[in-house]
Backbone:
């Protein structure tokens, strides 16, 4: 998939535009059918997919609750999050608040424990799911219309064009945590495994402009 780079973002931001943005767009809108006025909770809001999902959900007119660490609070609020839950000290499933959509990009929002946190007709969108989880998701539905959706994020040229247009209009900006040289790719992998990474890591293949 190739589209023209928006003029107002860097090459590093352009590289980060694709993965997180297309995954968030597919799960929230194609799979999850998110609509303006709905309430969405993003579990893992400071990562590559989460930071994209906050912006896309807000741009669509949703109210966003971000679940992340305390150190990421300022970042997710700057991206548009209306409410923030610190996962180290709180569990969103203990709240009386109910959401129309729960987007889980971490993998720990299981159906049995999380369905009570959804409104009738709520959707649990699980980005991280193995084959067993995917097969079980077809049975996860209750009498009030709550259901679970998993699967692989689609790669569609129109989605990438949408993200490029939003970026060009200043309505979407990929979050880049750090850029590494190709020779430092081992350090990049180590950084992924450490707490505190926000958004994407970008590898610069060449130092040439």
Residues:
């Amino acid at each position: 998939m190739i589209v023209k780079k928006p003029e107002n973002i860097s090459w590093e931001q352009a590289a980060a535009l694709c993965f997180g943005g297309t995954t968030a767009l597919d799960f929230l809108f194609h799979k999850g059918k998110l609509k303006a006025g709905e309430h969405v909770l993003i579990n893992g809001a400071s990562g590559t997919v989460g930071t994209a999902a906050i912006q896309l959900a807000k741009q669509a007119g949703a109210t966003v609750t971000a679940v992340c660490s305390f150190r990421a609070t300022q970042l997710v609020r700057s991206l548009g999050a209306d409410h923030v839950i610190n996962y180290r000290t709180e569990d969103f499933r203990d709240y009386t608040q109910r959401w129309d959509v729960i987007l889980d990009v971490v993998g720990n929002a299981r159906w049995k424990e999380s369905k009570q946190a959804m409104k009738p007709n709520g959707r649990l969108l699980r980005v991280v799911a193995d084959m067993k989880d995917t097969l079980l998701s077809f049975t996860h539905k209750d009498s009030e219309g709550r259901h679970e959706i998993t699967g692989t994020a689609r790669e569609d040229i129109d989605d990438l064009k949408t993200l490029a247009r939003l970026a060009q209009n200043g309505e979407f900006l990929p979050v880049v945590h750090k850029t590494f040289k190709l020779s430092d790719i081992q350090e990049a992998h180590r950084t992924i495994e450490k707490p505190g990474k926000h958004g994407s890591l970008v590898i610069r293949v060449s130092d040439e402009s």
Q: What stands out?
A: The two ends are 22 Å apart (CA to CA). The mean pLDDT is 94.
